[in-house]
Amino acid sequence: MLLFKTMTESQRLREQLQTIAKLGSALAVLSWDEEVNLPPKAHAYRGEVSALLSAEIHRKFTSDEFVKLARKLNSDSQSLSADDRVNAEETWRDVSRAQKLPVKFVEDLTRLTSEAFGAWAEARKQKDFKIYEPVLKRMVDMKRQEAELIGFKVSPYDALLDEFEPGMTSAQLDKLFSPIAKNLSALIKQAKNKKQQSLPKAFYELGAQTKLCHEVSETLGYDFDTGRIDASPHPFTTSFHQTDVRVTTRYDEADFWVSLGSTIHEIGHALYEQGLPAEHFGTPLGQAISLGVHESQSRMWENFVGRSREFSEYLYPLLKKYFPDQKLKFTSRELHLWLNRVKPNLIRVESDEVTYNLHIILRYEIEKQLVEGRLKVSELPAVWNQKMKDYLGLDVPDDAQGVLQDVHWAHGAIGYFPTYSLGNLYAAQLYNTVSQKIPGLAKGFSSGDFAKLLGWLRQNIHAEGRRYKPAELLEKLTGEPPNPAYLQEHLERVIKLG
Fold this sequence. Notes:
The protein is mainly alpha-helical. The chain folds into two domains: 9-151, no CATH class; 170-496, Neurolysin, domain 3 (Orthogonal Bundle), CATH 1.10.1370. The protein has helices spanning 9-36, 43-61, 64-75, 82-98, 103-126, 129-150, 156-164, 170-192, 206-220, 256-275, 291-305, 309-322, 332-339, 353-371, 380-392, 418-437, 451-460, 470-478, 485-496; strands at residues 227-231, 237-241, 244-249. A hairpin with a 2-residue loop joins β2 (237-241) and β3. α5 packs antiparallel against α6.
């Protein structure tokens, strides 16, 4: 006699989530290909294909059968095991949001992102915002519509922010960012009164830069058997599964840090994705907590590791190895000081740690005004340029180095930018804790020993999936809720270098 074991409702939920996640992986492959390989005239058709797949995913996720299952498990969550309770409650949160968006809206938005990306890329190439303006206006209109559909208490921006940082509001952001922003002008003034380290001009061959980025990435812990590095106009990381996590970077033959710094940042994201528990793929326990926590990983590796004195000692012989013809005319100490120079830069991804947060505040203020209807898309270049002058004292020479430098709005990712500064804040607080937990942690960086830091992050953050809310995670690991004081102290130390 054969005995058949009945699948529990929690098991059914996991199975259906994994099916949906596999479709999501296919959509992510199309998106990755669009930014890395797609011919310029193929965006319209790619948009149609992506829209079709996006709509199918949305239908499955909001089907009557799936919603009924998710609702029941959420209502019974206190009787479930700890893991099943997380999956039930977090899935219901996602479903509750998704239900508010009609399938046609999701399909239209996906189609628009492909069109917008193509327009953005061409506008950036031509340094002409006018090429991008009409499609961006439609994007902002759709994101306003999305906010209305989702619902909000105070600002429509909060509905969009919640997608990237669950539970966060712009009012809470202002409280966290205000003390940081208040001190930035003073710190920048201090930096202007100091002589900043420079390096002699040199030529860094692209092939050698590629090899350097690969060696550093592997040493940090990136698994090339489950990942790869390609080039794209705007560096990014995407994950299809824990066994397929891809990174892109960009190169500048006059500055090796353009590629290496971007690569280290993206590797921070990739290590998080590779470290999520594969057995929970597709479920909340196999997903990152939030974009702010995700950015804490990338910013920790880029800044707290990559700009440390010990990392410069590790990196210096690699520069000699990969660029032997340059006969480096600087020391590892000068390299360290150069990596920590504070000098306002037009480009966010190439800016120093201190001024970086002003780049984020600028974008946060602008996109919030766009969503709230207090700023017209046609006014963007002028407002952007004025804020760059006011905040960083810089004149913007063209749109490519100004309002067109970031791809986020073309992707519909309005509400994403604040997570970068949240990531800085979280990273400072977490790194302070892990440095106390592992005495002498940074000393190992000199010899390329990054395993202790990665091991701590894997055990305490990556392995937990979405078990905790961001603030809960910070309190659990550091003993207090998010606190901007640690980032302020770190930035003050950067200013004192030299």
